[in-house]
Amino acid sequence: MTTVTDQATRQETAASSAQVPPAIELRGISKAFGPVQANKNISIKVARGSIHGIVGENGAGKSTLMSILYGFYKADAGEVYINGKRTDIPDSLAAIRAGIGMVFQHFKLVENFTVLENVILGAEDSALLGPSRRRARGVLKQLASDFELEVEPDALIEELSVGHQQRVEILKALYREADILILDEPTGVLTPSEADHLFRILRGLKEQGKTIILITHKLREIMDVTDEVSVMRRGEMVATRKTADTSPTELAELMVGRKVLLRVEKTKAQPGDEVLRVEGLRLVDAQGVERLRKIGFNLRAGEILGIAGVAGNGQSELLEVLAGLREAEGKAWLRGAPLPLSGPECNGQARRAARIAHVPEDRHRRGLVLPFHAWENTALGYHNDPRYNPSPWRMDGAAIVADTAAKMERFDVRPPNPQLPAEGFSGGNQQKIVLAREIEYGPDLLLVGQPTRGVDIGAIEFIHQRLIQLRDAGAAILLVSVELDEILSLSDRILVMFDGRIMGERMADATDAKELGLMMAGMTET
Amino acid sequence: MSSKRIPNWADVTLVPLVSVVLAFIISAILIWAIGESPWAAVKMMVDGAFGSSYGWGYTLYYATNFMFTGLAVAVAFQARLFNIGGEGQAALGGLGVALVLLYLPWPHWTLALLGASVGAALFGALWALIPGYLQAKRGSHIVITTIMFNFIAASFLNYMLVNFLRPVGSQDPSSPRFPDATSLPKLHEILGLFGIPFSKVPPVNISLLIAVGLCFAVWWMLWRTRLGYQIRALGESEPAAQYAGISPARITIIVMLISGGLAGLMALNNVMGEQERLVLNAVEGAGFIGIAVALMGRNHPFGVFLAAILFGFLYQGGAELALWTGIPRELIVVIQALVILFTGALDNMVRIPIAKLFSLRRAG
Amino acid sequence: MDLATLAQVLDSTLRLATPLLFACLAGLISERAGVFDIGLEGKILAAAFLAAAIAYVSGNVWLGVLAGIAVSVFMSLIHGVASITFRGNQLISGVAINFLAAGLTVVIAQNWFQQGGRTPSLTGDARMPTIDLPFAEALADVPVIGPIYGIFSGHAPLVYLAFLCVPATWFLLFRTRFGLRLRAVGENPAAVDTAGVSVIGLRFGAVAICGVLCGLAGAYLSTGLSAGFVKDMSAGRGYIALAAMIFAKWRPWHAMGAVLLFGLLEAVANRFQSIEVFGLALPVQVMQALPYILTVVILAGFVGRAIPPRAGGSPYVKEH
Asked: 3-state DSSP: chain A helix, strand, coil percent, rounded to 5?
């Protein structure tokens, strides 16, 4: 693990000893949120007039680093140099003054303001708005013709497409005469043609001498548009490469790291009858973005179907639709009987009654009620279970506590105390509480999202074994994970999702990380 | 914020206690500023409220009112709904009691109490149903709608009293007296059964036992039934409740029905128990005091019980103060305001220093 | 209803609408900045008391007005500290402020003036003067024009100020830098923060303006509309103003329309026990309840939905 890092650093120092000071240099930046070290001693140089990519998995610390650069968070340690000059950035105003503009992943726009109002907000010329409006109108016209950034100045933000809203964010930065533009996951919400347009804009800005930092986890974009690329993993900067000298495969390896491959003991699957069939599943979110584009697949008893993909390509939505938490178009059948995807029968209780259990991706928000005791969380979703309710007037707390204690024992939850609030357990033990609840329900179909996110190594192995056991007991399991290793070691069959579509299907024993990685990056099937 | 944790016991007892002490200190300064002695005032209040069975009787009478309205606010708050409409719901409960007692024949007070309970709870619940429904189905902010419904209730009650309930020829906008058979036994009669002497003057009556019983019942409902489980789950985390298949709209409506019903039941104490007729403004702000009681009681029925007794003491003690000193009754409203301010809105001001103290102690 | 009665009713509508208008604009500015304020009632009451008390003691109504503004701003700042600085519950803070005012005014008034929680009656310079518009007297006898002009003449300066505040608020909100930022902070504080502008500063500014306007509402109530303070004299006006603000969907000109409508309802209710509308006798209680009923209907979204500022009611916490 360390060898990669060392090599990369050495390479990096050798490569960048230019005469012009870099537009941005960060030295030894560290930032912790409570016990979580989001950034560890990060140093990076971004050359003037270049497009510099920063890649890494979710939670690698990219956004935190950029938020520090934009004065949104204060670093615990480290220094920032802009154009070779040491610069303190205590707040966003300082960042703006230093010539930094930022396009956040979630736009910071006032939805019921016009484009013009959003652009001048905070950068007004005088106490009265008239002169600012007039000047901004002119500047916007100029920027539009210079950089293909056409937006109707009097349109309301909420009436614009996501792509146009993003242009407004870029215009905001340029109106403040930013020299350095940071874009955080800019293409996550864009259609491919919108993304292509964005890249044209970025190249145009680069030609004008602007410096651009592009944060993404999509390798294709990095290869397309950047000059240099830095890779982050678990809060550390592990490598910087000239884009021309690297490949998606290398970057993917750097992103994931050469961690210990968890070999899961398992026999070959014995798939039985079809449990789930999905056809033409389509989901359009509130912003009008198509998240699932007519997805179809099937899943049989006694098999684990893994959904691989970079986060944000529709896997989460797929899980939520199947779990009855979101309504969607299309058709689904459970053991041959229609499974409603919308309407009053599409809810968590109905799904459980149909013997579908769900381990949600976000256990803090959905899977657990954090202030509730462990035993109360054991009843979450199963609160109507007759075993827990001897009469309508009494929920049998003692029975649930006893059941929880037994589950804790079987799943090795520590501390095995049903009276402890859920927020008092470590991530791995929280996840075991959720898993115990869902697995021991004895579902025909288990939906699992990111089963080992934020979970320590020991618990990972345990959780994997339990999933295999459930499979061997004849349940069908749909596994969504952004950890490729996990997909590879657990699944019997693998679907790769990209941009709301299924890019292809592979048998787990007939593929490898390299092939899947390319499919995940949106490269078409070979 | 995980570093700012404080132990559960401190959160439940220390934080509200410090808040209340702060409120009392400021009140003491106020008493001193208007030229009275805070110490003498406290002594007079305690004597007036607890020094005799007469004082106890009034204290408990007020406390009964506050238990009903405090429970109403607390139940709604468990689902994170802020029901400011207790005042209107209690007023409508009074109308329910009056209609039941005036227009139906009752042979005995026990049956009358049963009928009046149904009337009070039903009217209060229905008055809360509309804001609840609008919140659940139309997203109308429940705080604003319940405020509006307080005023609508006042006008509606006024209209009913003036046009329907007022006896012919009477100028006073109030209903006729309820039949004698519907008169509730007073506390002194109940205690008399056990040979315990108690003052005959104060209006404290059997509703006290109902209120105490309801504290227990609400606790049972919240922590011993699946309805309560669903209410609390929705209150703590709406996404988790949705995940569990708990319908937020359904629970919101049910909670508001329960909350309104509890507020409405207050009418058993003041309308049926004390006045024995329906008058204008019978609630006298008890609906709002319920907010302070619930906040101080940390929205727990047992806490509500204790806080209701404390406010009963403040009201009775305050009345004594007004009688014997130059301190007007409204001092109690100030104390109530400070309790709401410190325990409700300035919670973090108290919590953050306490959390710091705890983390210092842990570190050192 | 004859013409003279009508003129009287309209005249009293203007006066009754004045405190509502101040308070409504106060709430509008606070909520536009994302701070809910159900404590308008308390601030009006506190200002009414202190304005009357100081006017009585000093014999100068304008000192009273200043004192009213001062106490109202002070209470606004309590609300600001609770809800902006300490991120407390804005609604609970508002409730507390209403009770604080209801209690303190009586306690202090009783201690100060010994008249059962009221101030002595204001006379002479302690009472707010009225302004006769030019030519009011000359035109008085001219048919139609005279009485109509008369409706607008002879009011206290604060009445005219209240109505001037409508275009002023509109201008502030929609034509100035401060207004742009203020509206933005109520819709999306993150947009303001990332633009390098202080969210906390803006919200405190809005809350302070709210205090000034509530102070004017209260001062007019006790020195202009009445001659002295009596217990609970705000009588729900803060809530009616809140209703008017929702009714107007947080827009200044519409706010004026709403308070005139609610003022008219009050004026009519004060004068008649019941009124016939299209052959249907409306009892006085219906007129009293009408502002609230109309507001609930608007809130329910059956007649044009009222959408409050999107960041309203929640403290700003940074997140990326």
From this structure: 35, 25, 40
Segment 117-136 of chain B within 8 Å of chain C by CB: 130, 134
**What is the rounded CA–CA span in Å between residue A42 and residue C185?**
34
Q: What are the structure tokens assigned to A113, written together?
A: 């303001």
If you measure CA to CA, which chain C residue comes closest to B162?
A: C285
Is some CB atom of chain C closer than 8 A to the CB atom of A108?
A: yes
Q: What is the ipTM of this complex?
A: 0.91
Q: Which chains touch B (3 or more CB pairs under 8 A)?
A: A, C
- Running along chain B, 364 residues long, what does each successive block of 10 average in pLDDT? 62 85 93 91 94 95 98 96 95 97 94 97 97 91 92 95 89 91 94 93 96 98 96 95 95 97 97 94 92 91 96 93 87 91 88 84 67
Q: By CB neighbour count within 10 A (0-12 exposed, 13-18 middle, 19+ buried), where does B105 fall?
A: exposed
pLDDT < 70 stretches in chain A = 1-19, 35, 58-59, 188-189, 191-192, 257-263, 457, 524-526
For chain A, positions 78-107, list CB contacts with chain C under 8 A.
91-97, 102, 104
* Structural domains in chain B (count): 1
Go through the domains of chain C in sequence order and give each one's CATH number. 3-300 (1.10.3470)
Give the chain B residue nearest C83 (alpha carbons).
Answer: B345
Structure tokens that stand for A207 in this block: 């030609």
Question: What mean pLDDT is reported for chain A?
Answer: 88
Count contacts between B and C (CB, < 8 Å). 154
CA separation for the pair A313, B354 (Å, rounded): 45
Which helix (H) or strand (E) segment holds residue A242: the answer is: strand A236-242
H/E stretch holding A303: none
Does C281 reach chain B within 8 Å, measured CB to CB?
A: no
Looking at residue C301, its amino acid is G
Statement: the pTM of the whole predicted model exceeds 0.95: no
- Name the superfamily (CATH) of residues A1-99+215-257: P-loop containing nucleotide triphosphate hydrolases (3.40.50.300)
Q: pLDDT tens digits, residue range A109-168?
A: 999 999 999 999 999 999 999 999 999 999 999 999 888 888 999 999 988 887 899 999
Neighbours of A (≥3 Cβ pairs closer than 8 A)?
A: B, C
Q: Which two tokens stand for residue B48?
A: 């007036």
Cis peptide before A371 (omega within 30 of 0): no
Residues in chain A, total = 526
Q: Indicate the CATH number for domain A274-520.
A: 3.40.50.300
How many whole angstroms from its chain centre is CA A514? 21
Q: Which of C176, C180, C320 sits opposite A67 (nearest CB)?
A: C320
Answer whether C103 touches B (CB < 8 Å).
yes
Chain C contact present for A74, CB below 8 A? no
**C172 in Cβ contact with C179 (< 8 Å):** yes
- Residue C6 neighbours by CB distance under 10 Å: 13
Instruction: Tell me the pLDDT tens digit for each residue of C249-291.
Output: 899 999 999 999 999 988 988 888 777 777 777 888 888 898 8
Residue contact A372–B3, C-beta within 8 A: no
B233–A394 C-beta distance less than 8 A: no
